[in-house]
Amino acid sequence: MNTHRWRRAIAPLLLILFVIIGGCAANQPSRFDQAQQESTGSKATPAVAKDATQGASFNKFFPQPGNGFTRVYTQEKKGFAEAKLNKGDKTVALLSINDTSSNPEAAAKFKQSTKKISGYPTVNQGSTATALLVADRYQVKVQSKDTSFTETDRETWLGKFNLSGLSQVK
Amino acid sequence: MSKSIFKIVDELPTGGLTVMALKSLDFVIPGQWTNPVGFENTIKLVTGESDEALIQQIGDRAVHLYNDKTQGYQRAMWLYETVDSASSALGAAALAGKIGQDVSFLGFLSNLTPKPEKSQSIDLCIKLVVELVAFCQINGIPGDSIGDFVASLGDYSGESLMRMAALVCFDGLIPLGPDFALKGLNTLKGMNPSDLGGNPVFKSVSELIPGGNDGGKLNFITQSFESTTGWMNNFVSSHGLTPENVVNNLASFVEISKDKLEYLGAFLDVSTNYYYHTGAQTLARRLTERAFAEI
Predict the structure, then answer these.
(1) Other Cβ atoms within 10 Å of B98 Cβ, number
(2) What is the pLDDT at residue A111?
(3) Residues spanned by the domain of A31
(4) What is the spatial distance between Cα B192 and Cα B228, in angstroms, rounded to a whole number?
(5) Which of A113, B21, B33, B153 could cross-link to A121 by cystine, CB 3.0-4.6 Å?
(6) Interface contacts A/B by beta carbons within 8 Å
(7) Contact assignment for B65 to A47 by CB distance below 8 Å
(8) Which of B6, B71, B140 comes nearest A32 by C-beta?
């Protein structure tokens, strides 16, 4: 009978439907899907440029701590170096240098800058970061990690990096 | 293709056995671990920023960094995931045919055997080495720099510190007792390379352990573990840790039977994945820090 055949077909059809719905629910779109596609497709460019300066080369340009501060290097990757700035037990800031040849859009934001520190274009980012650009390539950034570390403090510490030394790095 | 980093972090649970077991360790390192889950949530927490356009930029850069295999982040994630599933594999056979049944501690008892001490010791040592290698992959220090890793342990906080606390408590104190560090070291020193080569947990991650052949790798694991025993013993003594107080706290979060403790190590191995869970959180934090610094 036709009805009987339809009923026999329904169960597997329903199963397929539930699997599809379940699959769709599991694959909710994300605001980061585009970044995921761009960075994993066959035409993806690496996040870090092949000839980016090694992070180890940047370490010597970080500021000397002193005055109750300590500096702890935390990351040293190709094109990037980072250190924590601690006051006693507390991390009050993050200091970093990165080579923007890996991500030129980071350098582009300095074109709009109206401020300079030691002659280098400077911008604020969000409410916790200030950065400057050396030799159109190396970004030096200070992020506040404690409310006690103000924008003025960030500017002061940016000025303590060996910026002229960094500008000589090829 | 490996799962995206935002999916990994979005899918981290807020409850369940792993989370409860880790919460039971809050008495050791109060307030250090708040179980940050969700990729966007992690970005906001780590950076202190809330501007949506900035969050988007940071997240996009973090995704790009994670997907660049030369940067080592996927290797670190693989290590955390693999060492957890390999040390659970012992229980997999015990679970066969038990699907849908009781997943409580008592439900496991009839299907678990206590793990031999030697096997527990090797697990502890391999997990410690995985932490060292993953640390080097994530932070960029050369993968055989034991000294840099040991120096950095003093600076561990948050989810990284919780992972080490759980290693000491769940993989050290509970199955091996207060002398776990010595037992681990003695096991390693009494092994030959073929003993190691046959161990399933070692085999699962061996390609990323420095040392060349199994003999070289055994040396590396032994040196790494030996260099860390000071930190582990100090962690235990400075926090007044004993198997008893760890189990007592665990019992107030997870239903266990305190008179079947010889099974507890195996139960924790099978039913928790704290290395994967806290490892994903550590990785998300470091990626976020780097991404915000670089944009």
Answers:
(1) 13
(2) 96
(3) 2-40
(4) 21
(5) A113
(6) 105
(7) yes
(8) B6
